[in-house]
User: Fold these one by one.
Assistant:
Number 1:
Amino acid sequence: MSTPLQVATLQAAVLSATSSVIAQLLTSYRDSTFLSSSSTLNPLGLDFKLVIQFFLFTLLNTPPNFLWQQFLEKKFPGYPAQKGKQKVKVDDGGKGVTVENKLDIRNTVIKFILDQTLGASVNTAAFLVGLRALRGGGVGDCMAAVKGGFWPILMAGYKLWPLVSLVNYTLVPMEKRIVVGSLVGLGWGVFLALRAT
């Protein structure tokens, strides 16, 4: 039986490879080279090496991210466990009604800030270094990739991921957050793949 980590990793890797294919098809269409390949084995002219690089990078990068999200949720639970359920006094004859746990705003803000600063920075640098290394780049190439791409990608990410994180941390049950993140990640992966080509 597969663990949630294994499922999330495979799901993310497949979506990442898919985003690479979509980005290549969009680039091919934009450059008017779509379906111009003479290869019968690869009529779309896809660079499968790039697809594999995205797939491999995501296989390596998803487990630490999964563990990061688990750490954040464990240390700063959005809905802290309470012994039993709360009773709220209402005018119902004094019995009270049972309600669900409330969102812990303080924990959610801390989790959000940590994820959007430390998490985003590490992920951006890891993406730039990881893809450059998978392409055979040395330390100097990897450092140049970070120097040239870190801020533009981080700033572009800030136009999308804070909203996704906020929705995930406040509205999406813990067990469904990976699915939401992966679906949004498909579009983000297309953006990154377009930048990487």
Number 2:
Amino acid sequence: MTTTPPAPQPRTPRPAYESSNLRADPTLYTRIASTANTPGTRIPTAKFLVPIRSGKAWSVPQGSICRITTPEGPQVGDLNIWNRHNPRERFWAARTRQLYRSHVSRLDRLWSCLPYLRPMVTIVADSLEGYGVDGVGGRVHDLLGTRCDPYVNTLLSGDAFDFHCHSNLTRAILPYGLAESDVHDVINLFQVTGLNKNGEYFMEPSPATAGTYIEFFAEIDLLMALSACPGGDLSLWGWGEGKGGDMLDCCRPLGVEVYEIAPERREEVLRGWKEPESPAYKGVHGLVMPVFQKGEEKR
């Protein structure tokens, strides 16, 4: 007599990375976010637009708040982040994705690369926080993909186009002494993406509206660079100009605002905050030099 084995039961695998060391203090960062609603607590230090299909870079001092917005309607933005004083320390999208999830929101943090591995920013506000998972499995603020670039565009379409996000970011950072090789994997702000049933990456139109925003608290002195994606809100995207429709029609600027906390309120607002430190790994990756002593007998 044969028996049929029971059907496997659906289960949710346990996350591979779980630790209290990853969690931002909700009381502290909610207090920082609330400064937006307290007159006189935030002092504006910079405000500008990133025009369509272009990029800009700017400094954000430690303890400041940077707000990125879609002032005229839906638009995807590709963001890079560096330590202002040491550009070798830069945003690590892959590790951030592992530590949290494929898409991030309020109270998640963007971590730096090895050997630094510390939070560079903490997300303190996100007007798309409630987006969740849509009908096709898409989520917003993407860490799965990366920036568009002229190399893959030429590969896939045969076209040459100089205003992809990779190129926009490259031009933006040149005045800061950086180069194309310093551009790295991005967080795709306001972008909806996911993996289909075959594990293939997909992109959906941005759900942002006029005035949608996300805010970052600078844990260290930063250089940020942002590209207004040439695909606009991704409602007409395609490889090569005109392949998916006229993408220029769905391109809009992005807004950037930087605020410092008023000096007389800073101690109160940042109560309990301290600059994040790198893990205290003191090893040398197994590279141990032998000890040589004079007078040692020859063998």
Number 3:
Amino acid sequence: MSAQDGEAPKAEVKKQLVINAFVESCSGHQSPGLWRHPKDQSSRFNDITHWTELAKKLEKAKFHGIFIADVLGGYDVYNGPKNLDAAIRSGAQWPVNEPLAVIPAMAAATESIGFGVTVATTYEQPYHLARRLSTIDHLTNGRVGWNIVTGYLDSAARNLGFTEQPAHDERYAVAEEYLEVMYKLWESSWRDDAVVLDRDRGVYTEPSRVREINHVGKHFSVPGPHICQPSPQRTPVILQAGTSSAGKNFAAKHAEAIFVAGHSPSVVAKNTKEIRALAKGFGRNPQNIKFLAMICPVLGRTEEEARQKFEEYASFGSIEGALALFGGWTGINLAEYGDDEELRHVQSNAIRSAVEAWSKSTPGVAKWTKHTVAQHIIIGGLGATVVGTASHVADEFERWVSEADVDGFNIAYALFPSSFDDVIELLLPELRSRGLYWDGYAAPKGTYRENIYGLPGQSGLLPDHPAQGYRWRAESNDK
């Protein structure tokens, strides 16, 4: 029966957005040079209260999580090779601290907000990292996610036992086996009820409920067992950001949330569609993968106020820092090109393809030079930067959901913490009024996984996740 036949049309069910703050243990992060702005406090990242205050602020506003990026080396491509001067001088993600260390402090100051942390698989043995992440999952009561990266900076590789980065697809082959080891340690090494704390018998853990994993592979040999008892989630929420061919397959199989970046929804939509299709081949429900787009909103109560803010912020940005970041992200040294050289006409396919994508999303730019590129990423980096009122930014969020099929956003800041304050005061009320954002945590004091999926009680991997089969359950008689 149609609506014309008397049936009321069904109301459109809108996605409830997942929203994380996107930060790094450095100053400026995605907005190089803005540490110079008198209101910016990002240079306080060495102070533990910088992190605890942020966590309390964001939890009060009901953010799902805090997504902490990381790099293990400096951005040394611009004016290079092996030249860190631009990054060091401008403070472009330099200096940068280790990200895991601040999470227990933030967890102690909060109850429900989650923490996604970036750790590379290329430079650390899985047995050691499994222990570190299990420990953090315990200390946060199950509020940790692991953003799996394979690394992309030669400067990191040179300091960690390599002359340069291993080949791209080889890094993903290593990561695939790495995950297999991690799943075995986290899910299969201890039975759910292994720890009994039987004071009468003097038995802390039943030995029959702990077993070796005896993994022998091409890259790793790990007998086990895992040295930590099962944590609240066992496996942390699996986050991933790769959109190469190898990265897409890896994400489609393993990721519960995927971080995507692009200056327009059209740039992201193809990857989203392809990865969801690939997920079906691994027996997964494609909608169980949450795509989170990086976005940097510059908000004002009027369009004019927002535009003035943006122009003010941009005046503090560092062109040199932006070019240093671009070099690290792409491997392209723009110092080799003249100040007025049109980059859409150079021989490098990598440069032409990157600039063409930007020119389509920003058609008003007459000429794309290296300074145009720097200005384009000086606030918000490689993600979208949206300038306007809360209504306008919310419209853009809805456009990204509609056109790119994303499930939420990792919000980068221009100024710390002012950008987050504006999101909390102006944007979140607008999103809530449109039915796009929750009023409270689905699982107060629950795990990151429960709150990302909105499924209280779902602390472990979803039933359709490929690693679910590793789980050693209390009712199992497996030895």
